[in-house]
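I can't quite decide. Please look over this sequence plus structure tokens:

:::
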Amino acid sequence: MNPSDNSEKDIENKKALGPEARKAIRLQMAKEAQKEIKTRMVTVITTAFALVAALFWQTAITDTIKTFIPISGAWGYEIIVAAIITLGAAVIIYIISTDSTKGDEKARLEDTLGTVATPKVIR
């Protein structure tokens, strides 16, 4: 089978689709792209917070080691700051991760059930 045969069939199939079907396909592709961008942004932000925490720990650990070979005296303070930064980063990472999965759960539910109309209240 010639590869150009497949592309010609694809073109014919796309032409057979009506404008509404093409619009629905574009909308679905846009939703998928938006979801992928959101996932990658969460990954980037999470990685940035992890890097900040790691840098603080690097300083704290370096100064702790220097304590056994006395060179500086602020190591206790740096350990406390590193612990606080790590806890703060963990909380922020948890919040971001939770927020990103809420939208995914809602989308999954809508995909499964379809769009659910809210009932009208008659007074």
User: Anything to note?
Assistant: The chain has one domain: 3-98. Residues 3-98 form one domain. The first helix runs from residue 3 to 16.
